[in-house]
């Protein structure tokens, strides 16, 4: 009995240890810098425009600036394949971290200096530039994180990165509001621009990732073409690559389709803004953070394949909790339960699935491949949400709609289970998931 308890404590200690390792702490700091540009063109800019008297249609149109993040895979090959002059001596990842961080700071400063009241065109351009710079910064940050983390740290590192992202985005939004109330919006954006520095300093302190494998190219035009085509060619040469791509595309359809409709459900069930703030924002936030922590521990304890399969099942079942809420009607306890379960499942799933996607990368093409994988993971669900979610709710009602989203999650679960059974998960793994990093 004592030996069993001692073994359990030792196992838990080993699972928690990666949280205190420098690579995981670095992932947290990188996440902080990754999250703040998103906030600059999100709720923060929306509040600024509204307070400047810009009409609602124009304000909501600014969400199109986020499309740049969905298109980042188109130029993600650049930080992989182009060596910067002079700064390149610091290393491929470090040099690009410094340059893209400086670009983000410059773009945010530019947004601080424009006046929406004197012409909305300049503000639109400034917002798009922040989105482009932030997306490029993300490309480099994701690559640096994946190549810095050891395979056993991928789960915890992914969780720490998400913690950082949440704090960076929320912290930037709060800082902007506090500063703007005292010294105006220009000062608020100037203050937030410095949040790019944590990632830049982390890269300088840790240096070039040991697991980075620079691609070997021939000189001339062939080098440029190899930088573009190499990441795609390498991925599709793997055994089972097409099935892995199919899983990436379909695994989150049900979850994405459901997530954007929750506020519609709450409104139709008659929940007040105070109730939504308490249960959706409050309970959901803490449940998500708990889920992230659990995901890191479980990934370290039971490994990639089982932890991902559990995540897929939990994310599917969480949709049923909203079917139950829709059937029950206005219930604060029901809302808290549904939101808590969904956010905990999303936090857990986000960690282990992101860890799997990170492990799929070849260390020679980390930036390009992860940008492509992360874009593919959401594109189908977002397209379906924007084109069909409202119509499906009107046609079938909320209960049947959420049951349908659960059914739509089943192909991803079955496909991953089958790939695990026949060995395709291991066969299609990238060098980022190898202990020796492909060395």
Write structural notes for this entry.
- The chain has 439 residues and is mainly α.
- The chain has 2 domains: 20-212, Up-down Bundle (Growth Hormone, Chain: A), CATH 1.20.1250.20; 228-433, Growth Hormone, Chain: A (Up-down Bundle), CATH 1.20.1250.
- It is built from 20 helices and no strands.
- The protein has helices at 2-16, 22-40, 43-51, 56-61, 67-70, 77-81, 92-113, 120-148, 154-183, 185-193, 197-206, 221-236, 241-250, 253-259, 262-268, 273-302, 304-328, 332-359, 366-422, 424-427.
- Helix 1 (2-16) crosses helix 16 (273-302), helix 2 (22-40) packs antiparallel against helix 11 and helix 14 (253-259) crosses helix 19.
- The longest helix has 57 residues, at 366-422.
Spell out the blueprint of helices and strands.
Blueprint: H1 2-16, H2 22-40, H3 43-51, H4 56-61, H5 67-70, H6 77-81, H7 92-113, H8 120-148, H9 154-183, H10 185-193, H11 197-206, H12 221-236, H13 241-250, H14 253-259, H15 262-268, H16 273-302, H17 304-328, H18 332-359, H19 366-422, H20 424-427
Helix pairs in contact: 1-16, 2-8, 2-9, 2-11, 7-8, 7-10, 7-11, 8-19, 9-10, 9-16, 9-18, 13-19, 14-19, 16-17, 16-18, 17-18, 17-19
């Amino acid at each position: 009995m004592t030996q069993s308890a001692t073994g359990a404590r030792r196992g838990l200690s080993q699972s928690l240890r990666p949280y205190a390792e420098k690579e995981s702490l670095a992932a947290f700091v990188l996440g902080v810098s990754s999250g703040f540009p998103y906030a600059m063109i999100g709720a923060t800019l929306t509040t600024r425009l509204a307070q400047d008297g810009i009409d609602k249609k124009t304000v909501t149109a600014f969400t199109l600036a986020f499309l740049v993040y969905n298109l980042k895979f188109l130029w993600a090959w650049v930080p992989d394949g182009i060596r910067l002059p002079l700064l390149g001596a610091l290393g491929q990842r470090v040099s690009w971290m410094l340059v893209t961080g400086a670009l983000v700071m410059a773009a945010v400063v530019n947004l601080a200096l424009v006046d929406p009241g004197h012409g909305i065109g300049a503000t639109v351009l400034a917002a798009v530039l922040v989105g482009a710079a932030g997306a490029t910064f993300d490309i480099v940050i994701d690559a640096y994180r994946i190549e810095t983390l050891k395979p056993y740290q991928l789960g915890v590192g992914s969780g720490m990165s998400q913690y950082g992202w949440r704090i960076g985005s929320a912290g930037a939004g709060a800082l902007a509001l506090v500063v703007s109330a005292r010294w105006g919006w220009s000062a608020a954006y100037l203050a937030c621009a410095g949040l790019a520095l944590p990632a830049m300093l982390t890269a300088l302190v840790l240096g070039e990732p040991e697991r980075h494998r620079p691609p070997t190219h021939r000189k001339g035009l062939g080098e440029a073409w190899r930088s573009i085509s190499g990441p795609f060619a390498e991925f599709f040469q793997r055994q089972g690559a097409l099935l892995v791509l199919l899983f990436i595309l379909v695994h989150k359809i049900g979850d994405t389709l459901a997530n954007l409709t929750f506020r519609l459900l709450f409104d139709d069930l008659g929940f007040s803004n105070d109730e939504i703030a308490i249960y959706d924002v409050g309970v959901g936030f803490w449940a998500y953070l708990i889920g992230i922590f659990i995901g890191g521990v479980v990934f370290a304890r039971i490994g990639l394949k089982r932890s991902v399969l559990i995540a897929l099942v939990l994310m599917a079942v969480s949709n049923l909790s909203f079917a139950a809420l829709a059937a029950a009607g206005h219930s604060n306890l029901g809302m808290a339960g549904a939101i808590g379960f969904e956010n905990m499942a999303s936090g857990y799933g986000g960690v282990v699935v992101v860890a799997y996607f990170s492990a799929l990368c070849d260390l020679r093409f980390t930036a390009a491949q992860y940008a492509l994988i992360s874009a593919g993971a959401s594109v189908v669900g977002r397209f379906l949400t924007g084109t069909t979610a409202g119509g499906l709710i009107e046609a079938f009602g909320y209960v049947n709609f959420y049951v349908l989203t659960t059914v739509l999650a089943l192909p991803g679960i079955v496909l991953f289970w089958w790939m695990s059974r026949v060995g395709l998960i291991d066969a299609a793994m990238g060098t980022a998931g190898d202990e020796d990093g492909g060395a």
